[in-house]
Design goal:
There is one protein chain. It is built from 8 helices and 12 strands. By secondary structure, the chain is α/β, with parallel strands linked by helices.
Amino acid sequence: SIKGQKDYDLIQFKYIIKAFNEYKYDAINIGKREASLSLADLENCKKWGGDLIVSANLVYKKSGKPIFKPYKIVKKGSKKIAIIGLVDPIGLRAVLDENVAINDMGLVLQNILPDLRSQVDSIVVLAFAKNDKLNALAKEFIEVKLILGGDVEQPSQELEKVYDCAVLATTNDSRAMGWYYVMIDEKNKWVNEKFEMIFISEMFSQSKLIESINDKYKEEIRNVILNIDKKNFNDENGVPGVKSNMTYVGSESCLACHSETYEKWSKTQHAHAFKSLKDKKADADPN
């Protein structure tokens, strides 16, 4: 998920999309933060993602056509699986770009599914929505076999079934990773289902591929001129009519008057915080 709408957030998101592509993900969905971007930024996301991003109910307001591919059909063995992207409109309409609109999730599925039934063996829905909305979709559209959600307070702890549909969710803070395994038999019935949620910790070594992508992100963020780098971006009058003459003087300047406090502070991790960023070449990253 994108962190925000700043220019450096978009640069970071570009590399996140790149990572998904490098890891051969079949599809990723648009969430609420992405949906609230400007149309120009959404178009950039589409350019970066190619066929990776799916979103069926985020549309151009003028034409009503989806901005991204509404769904993607992938082949797993001999089976064809449709992956549809949805985002809950609740709370979104007020923050959308003036040229962007969003349709009801249920109405969109009603329009899409009749055409898909004859094309695929199974249907998966990626829905950025609360648990109650995920369950409601599963109850209404019984042909959907799996719903993966994201707008939740905590990740799924166990496999939840609504009729024949598995409903699973992870949080969007990248601290949990779930996997769901299933066999699809000759009658397209899903059997031998297994599910596990793994919480990410330091026991997992960092991927060399991710490190490489992250290094490229840090290099770009260091060399590009961001809005916060521009003099006219920051208001120099914190109090209207009063210009601040304050400048950064460094921690050592505190030593003369606060020697005891400085001595204690210098032995903490905080004293080396910026050095740690410089060592990781992350000192130019606003995040």
